[in-house]
Amino acid sequence: MIIVMKPKTPQNEIEKIKCKMESLGCEIHESKGHNYHLLGLVGDTSKIDPNQIQANRNVEKLIFVQEPYKKVNRLFHPEDTLISVKNETIGGNRFTIIAGPCSVESEEQIVSIAEEINEAGASFLRGGAFKPRTSPYSFQGLREEGLELLKIAREKTGLPIVTEIMSVDYVEKFVEDVDIIQIGARNMQNFDLLKEVGKTDKPILLKRGMSATIEELLMAAEYIMSEGNENIILCERGIRTFENYTRNTLDLSAIPVIKKLSHLPVIVDPSHAAGLWWLVEPLAKAAVAVGADGLMIEVHNDPANAKCDGQQSIKPERFKSLIKSIKKIADIEGKKM
Amino acid sequence: MIIVMKPKTPQNEIEKIKCKMESLGCEIHESKGHNYHLLGLVGDTSKIDPNQIQANRNVEKLIFVQEPYKKVNRLFHPEDTLISVKNETIGGNRFTIIAGPCSVESEEQIVSIAEEINEAGASFLRGGAFKPRTSPYSFQGLREEGLELLKIAREKTGLPIVTEIMSVDYVEKFVEDVDIIQIGARNMQNFDLLKEVGKTDKPILLKRGMSATIEELLMAAEYIMSEGNENIILCERGIRTFENYTRNTLDLSAIPVIKKLSHLPVIVDPSHAAGLWWLVEPLAKAAVAVGADGLMIEVHNDPANAKCDGQQSIKPERFKSLIKSIKKIADIEGKKM
Amino acid sequence: MIIVMKPKTPQNEIEKIKCKMESLGCEIHESKGHNYHLLGLVGDTSKIDPNQIQANRNVEKLIFVQEPYKKVNRLFHPEDTLISVKNETIGGNRFTIIAGPCSVESEEQIVSIAEEINEAGASFLRGGAFKPRTSPYSFQGLREEGLELLKIAREKTGLPIVTEIMSVDYVEKFVEDVDIIQIGARNMQNFDLLKEVGKTDKPILLKRGMSATIEELLMAAEYIMSEGNENIILCERGIRTFENYTRNTLDLSAIPVIKKLSHLPVIVDPSHAAGLWWLVEPLAKAAVAVGADGLMIEVHNDPANAKCDGQQSIKPERFKSLIKSIKKIADIEGKKM
Amino acid sequence: MIIVMKPKTPQNEIEKIKCKMESLGCEIHESKGHNYHLLGLVGDTSKIDPNQIQANRNVEKLIFVQEPYKKVNRLFHPEDTLISVKNETIGGNRFTIIAGPCSVESEEQIVSIAEEINEAGASFLRGGAFKPRTSPYSFQGLREEGLELLKIAREKTGLPIVTEIMSVDYVEKFVEDVDIIQIGARNMQNFDLLKEVGKTDKPILLKRGMSATIEELLMAAEYIMSEGNENIILCERGIRTFENYTRNTLDLSAIPVIKKLSHLPVIVDPSHAAGLWWLVEPLAKAAVAVGADGLMIEVHNDPANAKCDGQQSIKPERFKSLIKSIKKIADIEGKKM
Lengths: 337, 337, 337, 337
Description:
Four copies of one chain form a homotetramer. By secondary structure, chain A is an alpha/beta fold. Chain A has two domains: 2-63, Phospho-2-dehydro-3-deoxyheptonate aldolase, domain 1 (Alpha-Beta Plaits, 2-Layer Sandwich); 74-332, TIM Barrel, CATH 3.20.20. Helices cover 35% and strands 19% of the residues of chain A. Chain A contains eleven helices and 14 strands. An eight-stranded parallel β-sheet of chain A has the order 13-12-11-10-9-8-7-14. A four-stranded antiparallel β-sheet of chain A has the order 2-3-1-4. In chain A, α6 (191-198) crosses α7 (214-226) and α10 (277-290) runs parallel beside α11. Chain A is elongated and about 75 Å long. The two termini of chain A are 43 Å apart. The model of chain A has no long low-confidence stretch (mean pLDDT 94). At the A-B interface, α2, α6 and α7 of A face α2, α6 and α7 of B. Chains A, B, C, D: Keywords: Transferase. Chains A, B, C, D: It holds the Pfam family DAHP_synth_1.
């Protein structure tokens, strides 16, 4: 951390800050330029509250040298983290496909889609039981019943299940029922929820918030890890920008950046990013090429009658041919499916 | 709602959609141009799911004519909504000042700040007990103890209290303890929480999410109203943009827009928007001039030792002089404090 | 400037950079932490090219302590710059109103609007002769003829004229014909144009680009000043964000920020920011309250038949009543009109 | 175009608008709902100015059904446009690599880089002679001398050359000297420049502006085409968003979207988007997978001493190995290099 003092700050004010910082356990490296006076804080800065420093009226600004996240930081954990879920591994040289409908609608629907994606080569079944919807008048999911139907689909196909949690009240039930708990984009900074799932050892799929920076996504993961749960899979699903032809702007640069900054696996959800079914295929292929560890794709056998997000779901046949293209690119990237 | 069919859609596909829409209770006005074929849906469109229409592969796009929110829409409720809290009224020709520290730190701190802002002319005391913090290593608030201290400050000053809720588990307690329940920007789309506070009749201060459009803010308010609670105060607190000199970009245009679209009162939080104490004063004055119904301002008696957000808090003396300027502009706008 | 070396950079690589920096005239303050090794550059850094440092594969990142702009920087020029145009002064304790139609359409139109705004209290007449339009099929302005009509309106009312230049080929003509040359948002980084107008001594009204940071706006002004022209008036006119109810998001926080960072006067254009006539009035008032040095407002006597941007133009009567409100707020702010 | 009238607009006002529209050559399809009254304009709407309609105070909003661009629209030109430059073709099933340094620095530099990229498999040499730089104190390019050096490199390698134009004054010279004229992101809406290059028949590489929507990019291309030049190659190079780990956010979704909306070829510049050399490789591969028609990549033999943007340039060896990966993915996509 580097404190930039305002031009013309009286020396005694600078001394006060130095004393305070030293009393909190830091060593101070001072550097005086023509206009600014810098105080570099070295050593253990964990007891220092940046906001307090910035609140000092003589401080021009505060510059951070080191990332604020620790447990998710690759600097302190150079090897890739691998997440084991039943017989599957996520991360490393594996490429993982999670697929399924936006929401669970009926036993017949979820079982038949599960069978189709299983046959096509997916490793996980996704399906929403509890649905965050922008409008209170839209379908809100089958809730507990949806969870039961997912379990039936899992039993019939062997595919482990991934589904979204929306409230701390359900953590216990999800730990028992599902294989990967998804935290959606809208809850990426629902800190109470992050802490609760952090106390379990269930794999967590953490989606990037619509307006979250990469650093904020990593800080959200840090919340989970700081409670003890190290099984985290990150997911890029598009950010909000001025361009609105697409629902969101898929930020594929985030993939190599995250892999540089953190040891956690990261997958891509092209369906929610684009919001348009015909964009899913090119974006999925690009995600493999850019180095993602997997994909989460919405597949529906009857999009025009889907209860949710049919416009971004692809049909099983198209999914099958997509998997074939993906495999070829994954091969080039040295990843196994 | 207007359905734009893809160029060259076969007539029988158009007929299918028409049939389906009619069976759901709509009348259809058809319009055929050179390249596109439009179907305008008139009448009761409440049973129609826009996503399903968009999922139809022959549909080019869907155009919405009417706003998706109903209960918060000024079209169906032309008069301003006034919110009564104890002896205070928010909205209409009143201009309301809510002030206090970012977080409650101690009895002495909260009581002394409450006394100062009370004397200066504020009508409500704010103070965080449960704090959403980006880092798990930052101060997370005094939680229940913070609520107790706020109640002591209320008793000593008579100021009603406003504080943020972070989890559905606390709704009952907040209803009992506080006067206005705040939903923070990060929880604006925590739909379970919106529904729960919607079932109470406690006034809700709903802050705009960092990347929420005005329409999404109004849809979040619709969630609360659709459960029965009509006591909602909206709050603009800055949106995320590419400009990062300021923490967020305060969107003051949103104030007259919201007042045109909705009957709900709307206030401005310049402290969180700017993130810098010296910007609070000019932005607060601009908020009055643009037509806001009130302000929420962070005030701390010792910002450099505040446990949270000291860099954006102003001191009581400055707050007092700010209130005087605000009063003059409020006068011009015909608002009473 | 602070160079952050990558963790584990070999010492000889660090020495190489130090040597190079010293040979370019800098003193180096070194600071070694647990993970990073910092090199602080003090003294004359003008010969250093930041891009070259960042291109060094051992450099993690480069941190800038000082602003990249010099001549526009308030640090080296603490007093407000005042711009004199004929009998008018812009900046300091003056509040300036520039008004007129989006584009000059005919002699009758521009003269009659000029007379109305003159009577209402405006100090400058604006009107586009050369128009940057998104579509090649839209009205592109009367060009040279438009300039002539502006001159007639000036003669009849005494109002100095402001109009936009679009190409270096016209600099000489504009210097002769107009009183303030406007550089539009789309040309804020047309560096050849900036340099050319920088070689004149004509006052320049420089509008912020739609996606320009405050720093980039100041760097554009630096281009002009570095060629010798110090008569620059900055203009905030809205930035592009995800919110699209309004054409752009007016960034009023930029006003106090610019006044802190620079000595140049800054005005606000609420018409282009909002893109909707009924937003002009509240935003104009907010601009006065936030501390702007003036306003540029589109006024048209027949918006529904305007050849350009009628939807954001207000009528003369409304302009007159707006001027009255503005005067009252300017009074509170200690500004004279 | 659909006009949405305000609720409760008097019938005579609606009649006035209808008359006006009909007099301009449109047919009107009327549709009256509970709250809104819609007027659909069918037929030749070319004489209608949308701004004038929106300026009518009884009009709630205007909805566009059809795209505003015509000549670049795939609807009226279903086949891919192929651009011929010397022996090369861009578009269709060709995948084109343009490579070279950010700026031309010396004969030795440009010739040796040209030889290396030629050997590696690039088809075009890029290099900046006229450089748009944010700071007036940065290297501004060798200008005319740079053009001469590019011509020498072309002569020695046979590679056609691509370089950026910054001012209308140079159009004639560029037409004579270079093979593809580049319009940079900052000049995407320099309409005078677009018109001038539109009058030539030289291939134009048009880069998307940093905050330009896809529609605005296509409208800029329309400017060029409306003057007669149909040889346009579009280029995605990143847009400005709130995420600032990367210089810009590369919007790869734009590629399939542009290919759907327009018949023009579109390439990707990963170097400027990312601003970091280690991101160029993954983003380049993703660009091939997402369906781009080519890449423009910055290559420098000595990035740490480059006069410009060394931090985003890759070295020739890395470029060679990248080309091999790209070839494999291009194969899968059915594209030839």
